[in-house]
Amino acid sequence: MSKYKERNICVHKSCMFAAKPIISQKPDWNKAVSEAEKIVGYPTSFLSLRWLLSDEIANVALHLRKLVGSNHPLLKTAKSLIYNGRNNMQAWGLIVLLISKAAGHLNVDDMEEDKAAGVLHSQRALAEVTEMIRTSHLIHKGLVNITPGIYPETTELHDMTFGNKIALLSGDYLLSNSCTELANLRNQDLVELMSTVVKDLTEAEFIGRRDNQNNPLPCIPPPNRKGYAVKEWTLRNVLSAGTLLGKSCKGTLKLAGHNDDIQEQGYEFGKHLALAWQAYLDLGLFINKESAMSFNLCSAPIMFHIEHDPSILTEIDKGLESVDNVDYAKVYNIVSQGPGIELTKQLQKKHSQKATEVLSIFQESDARTALYNIIAAMGDF
Which of UniProt's keywords are assigned here (predicted)? Predict the structure, then answer.
């Protein structure tokens, strides 16, 4: 039996496809995250006291209050960041730390290790960098494209302009701090790796058709539509989410001294987990929410329905100038009656299984079990 002589790593062929541990009770999301946080020491989110009590964040919060009552997207973004739900940013850093602990580390100075949590101080810093990059990207996406005449009311124009300033500055603040934290790790390969993440996030905003506010619209499918949905959806979401989590997982294994093969497995785990997560969120749009609410028109159920019947584009294309012109209730009803939801469930399951297979190369541990539980908690549709 051949094994890497690395802590917590098992690459015997039978281990690659080891069955997931049997869980007697389906994990609850909040419980899975709460238990996972205990394993790595404490909540991983950069929204901790040292950030919340900083002068810069206090000033942003003060200015943000002035936007209450306006329709600026930054308010919605801020709410989603604070809301302790399945889309919270805290879980991204948490996953980076869990994969760090599950894999262990090699030939590292004892001073570098957080012995209580079982991870390196540099790995915890990288987890914060991951969250900061993700959050800054979401905040920057909240910028409004102000064109002449779009806001005839002076008050509304002022609110939108002011909101843009806050979104731009706060997003830049987080991104610049992530660069500083990354530079402090003094690892050129890691800096190069994470810089490609920012490039991918930027590229994701220029993929496919867009309305005047840069909201995404599905591409026109080719005459042969087979495979259109998976290809389009995967491209968008690998660039906008998969590479960030994937390369963060790869980077944390690099910091731990693992070889290139193990690092690449870390990337595959993060990428597939991010895609499974996105498919899960896309499902939630059609299962847990009101049909009249707006949603991402490039979500997986819609993309699958377009592949099945592109006539739905007649309604979606009403949003070429603004997605607000789309009748979301009509789109919801059409998609709900088609194969899109079931195909998205299969897509989510496929990526969850691929992430689970990667976890099988690590020896059994509380961190690995916590990652299994987080994956399992996403499959409760």
Answer: Transferase
